[in-house]
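Researcher: Here's my situation. A collaborator sent me these components and asked whether they could plausibly form a single complex. I don't have experimental data yet, so a predicted model of the whole assembly would be a useful starting point for our discussion.
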Amino acid sequence: MKITGADIIIETLIEQGVDTVFGYPGGAVLNIYDALYKNSDRIRHVLTAHEQGAAHAADGYSRATGRVGVVIATSGPGATNLITGIATAMLDSVPMVAITGNVSCDLIGRDSFQEIDITGITLPITKHNYFANDITQLADMLREAFRIARSGRPGPVLIDVPKDVQTALFDYEPMPVAPPFPNRQAPQEQIEAAAELLAAAERPYLYIGGGVAGAGIASEIEKMADRIDGVIGCSFMGLSAIPTDNPRFLGMQGMHGHYASSMAQSEADLILAVGVRFSDRATGNKQKYVRGARLIHLDVDFSELNKNIPATLGIAGDITDAFRRLLSAVSERRHPAWQERIATLRAEEAGQLHESGGLTPHAVIETINGIIGPQTVIATDVGQHQMWAAQYCRFRRPRRFVSSGGLGTMGFGLGAAIGAATGSGDRTVLITGDGSFGMNLNEMATLASQNLPLTVVIFNNGVLGMVRQWQTLFYGHRYSNTTLHRKTDFVRLSEAFGIPAVRVSDLASFRAAFAEAYAKDGPMLIDCAIDPDEFVLPMLPPGGSIEDIILEKEEKA
Amino acid sequence: MNKFVIAVYVENRFGVLTRVTSMFTRRGFNIDALTVGETESPAYSRITITMSGDGYARDQMINQLRKLFNVKKVELLEPEQSFTRELMLIKVKNSGQTRQDVLAAVDIFRSKIIDYSADALCIEITGDPTKIDAFVEIMKPYGIIELCRTGIVALERGSGSLLAR
């Protein structure tokens, strides 16, 4: 039976298992929205306040569920508003399909109203993209887009559909969902070589990243650490991949990593890195990162091997399969001296925390930890609050940390939290800063209309704290444009959006407010007064190494 | 810094060359020359890339090319196992004093005159890029008016086909 291109899009989305899409209508997607209207009982559309919020929502939806997030936007400004969202998903390998409308084929290339070459613009920030100018290919293109988005190392795929293709008629036959493209299997010789390196190690350190979260091998990672008597550290993207309370888990390493984790990484004689890409924020000075250690690097993306850090043994292949084989190839080892050293490092780290008793970032997050359940999703924006969340939040389930790592997108949090809460159906907490929140707070409108169980906690210090921290440390306390001098009343603003809110300046009030918010079935905002001179510590200065670690805030005259 | 030649089979469709060159920009690769054209299979085009760099740059280039979805095959062409050719059109000044020397060089380099006017000679020359370089050097004293090189095309020696492999 012949149906329109717009109907083909919706049928194919449903065929691909999509039940929720995020987006914003406009002239060039009117037909797609008409098809959504007809099919509103089969597919749910979440209307955001801005296309950027929709893109972040699709991203957050995907991070929290593992499913492909879908966003729809119109041509021209609708499409360009997606760009930050698509780039954010690209840098963190999040599977997403973005569908944009465009002007009719006969108007393409004539600078028509709201015409933009979105496939050209998004070339470097998508895993792949399509200009769907042929109705006969439309369904297969969309199917391939989903397949590419979820295969291997996931990523965003964009498909740009001109308006006349949306109205054209063509046959549609439902097809079963194609499995992801098969990953290459790591050669058994490499697995055995890795097992030999592990057997020879005295101070093993497992380093896990975002690739582990998607591979479903949390328990294998924990078993491996037990078997080789090693410790586990993670990259920012590896947070929540294994439970924080695993006794061998030292937390995030790198620029703002845990002291014990970064120190153990630097002292290890063997690093088993799984699903990581050695970002500069994780490594600091690349020449001084691995030191004398041997490095085994396992990743599904062969192009990551030797890209940033040369490996002793690089293994390209399906992480789940390769890691399981590696686990069965290693035998029990004990390294009491290494564990003793780790205990010392942990004790040193514990001694570094000085509690003032006030509404400190640490105290706020510990209060949240004490109230939330294991399924709660923590979303963040970008800046100091994000690093504090990375350091102090305790995760008990995978996919419970939703945060922009690679691109570091301020303004990501609210949209992403809405997407995560929508997709997971679980209670969600957004930890944000007044700077980041100010970027996309229009999505409070979406939060109110969706009435999601989402608590917004603003670390409000009146400054752009992370940039200010750098200005304190590296720019002679010259606070250029990081003191906000704003008059925004977040409580009244939130209430204007239709969301109850409260301002707190002491810990007891925060505890009471958060307990109340968390018990709600709808949203609530808590505006927390935080000292603008709080620092994220430890800190490895950019391009520095473990010797340069800053542990205490020193006031330089 | 070595020069190396990479052969790439890509799907013969709209926008694929842009996809490849966009990746060069994104990854900061600086290429010396790039040629693209049809192949034995209508479904694929072949891109030949010449690039200078170390082993790291070479491996990165190959890996990043292999990740692109419209790329079917990427092969490094080892200089000993392949032959490379380039075509150049070059226009030099024509004068009574230099004409015989230019014609002698054209003969020795097994190139040919394709246009002749009172003031200029236009020469077509094909060969290994080093031969083309040498010919340019020889022509310089006679006064080069304009020149245009195609960039390298290259095939592996023997009976194999990269696409079939």
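Model: Some features of this prediction you could bring to your collaborator: Chain A touches chain B through 13 residues (CB under 8 Å). Residues 104 and 163 of chain A are 5 Å apart (CA to CA).
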